[in-house]
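User: Please predict the structure of the protein below. I'd like the answer in structure-token form so I can feed it into my own downstream comparison script.

Assistant: Understood. Taking the following sequence of 101 residues as input:
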Amino acid sequence: MQHKKQNLLNLLQRIFVNKYSFVLFVFFAYLIFFDDHNLIKRFKTKQEINQLEQEYLYYIDEIEANKAEINHLKNDSVYLEKFAREKYFMKKDNEEVFILK
């Protein structure tokens, strides 16, 4: 066990003593954590883009459903009356409306 730890320490020491490896390590650390376009910001931005694309698709579907609803309301007077009664509690002059909850 002690021998494995010693080998690992020697390997790490050789890697970090080599000036080229050290420069590469510092460069990648800079890119990952400190750059203006670092990997952490890119990951968060990608998540936000995915969320906005899902919202976009949801609203496109809602727009299509609302257009169909408007078309149905414009062309069907019976449906328009039903919609007005259910959503806005409208009534005819000679009626009384009771709302039960």
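That's the full token string. The chain has a mean pLDDT of 86.
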